[in-house]
Structures are given as C-alpha cells and as structure tokens.
Amino acid sequence: MVDPLTLLAFIPAALALNLTPGADMLFCLGQGVRSGPKAAVAASAGISAGAFIHAAAAGLGLGALIAALPWAFDAIRWVGVAYLLWLALQSLRGGTQSAGVVASRAARAFGDGLAVNLTNAKVILFVLAFVPQFVIPANGSILAQFLIFGMVLSLGGFIINAAVGLFAGGIGRRLTGSPVFALWLGRISAGIFAGLALRLALLQKG
User: Fold this and answer.
1) What is the tens place of the pLDDT at every residue in 133-174?
2) Residues 40, 31: contact at Cβ < 8 Å?
3) pTM score of the predicted model
4) Domain parsing of the chain, residue ranges
5) Cα 1 to chain center, whole Å?
6) No. of H helices and E strands in the chain?
7) Which residues are CB-contacts of 180 (< 8 A; sequence separation ≥ 6)?
C-alpha cells in the first residue's frame, strides 16, 4: 500500500500538474464551447477514465513494452493526431449543437474524451516519468500503488477539467442563439482540436 506521507506529498504535486493548462483542459474547453456543459463534464469523465487506465497500464509494464517496441509509441501518437483532426472536421461541419442534442451527446463526449486521452502519447510519457517517483517497491504491490496514484490524478483532473468545461459551456450556451456566433464557436472548437493534433504530431519521445 501507499505510505500516508508519500500520498500527502503526491497530492499537491498532482494537483499542481492538473492545474497546468494542457491538452486535456483544452479538449474539455472545446467540448464546452461546442456542445455545452453536460458534454464538457462527460468529456472530463472520459479523460479521467483514460488517465486511470494509463496508470494501470504503467503499473502492468507499459514502459517495458514501449522500450521493447519503439514503434508502438509513434503508432499511438499518430492515431491520436488522426482522431483529433477528425474531431476538428466534425466541429467545422456541425458548429455548435442545440440544447436538445447536448443531452444525447454526453455518452459520445465521454467516449471522445476517453479516446483522446488513451491516444495521447504525452500522457503515457508523463505517467511513466512522474508516478514512479512516488512508488516504493518495499511498500507492497507496485500495481496497487500505481492504481492509487492514478485515482488521485484522475479525480483531480476531473474536477479541474470539468470546471473549465462548465465555464466554457455556459458561454457557448448564451451565444448559440445567434447563427453567426454558432458558426464561429464551431470554428473555435475546430481550431482547438487542430491545435492539439499539431502539438501531438510534434511531440518527441525524448
């Protein structure tokens, strides 16, 4: 199990990292602008689920897999780039959604958030580099420790990203009554997704 003092040291470090603007936060921002608050919260939940899966995978030996198969990292990265570009295209085609559609989009937003996080190679590198610093083999199961730290990261990320998405969703809802604003909000969402794709495409394994 995780030592209480180690956990106390991990929580503020994880919170500081969650508060740093990044791809997850921008994705929830884009979902909020494009589809409203409910979709933004669902997307944040999907991203948090993905972060937990990353932690579990790291605990099971993902680092060893990437070291043995260097192409796996790039394969995951380019799948993520393609998916983000597809989301950008969807934003350009659909603009923002009406209130009736937003409710039905929650499940899809969760899936989008999960897929984007799981294909974000930068998250893989982050988990592999950050979490092991707090794992102490002498304290028992390494996988259990990764899962506990993963839960902390996921919970903090969910709260922060959901808050950002709710804020953006509130703005988007007030502006979607205007076709002109709806068009530009769709373009802004597309720009966010395309920017995330570019950022991921330029990522180096290091």
Assistant:
1) 788 878 888 888 889 999 999 999 999 999 988 887 776 655
2) yes
3) 0.71
4) 27-201
5) 27
6) 10, 0
7) none
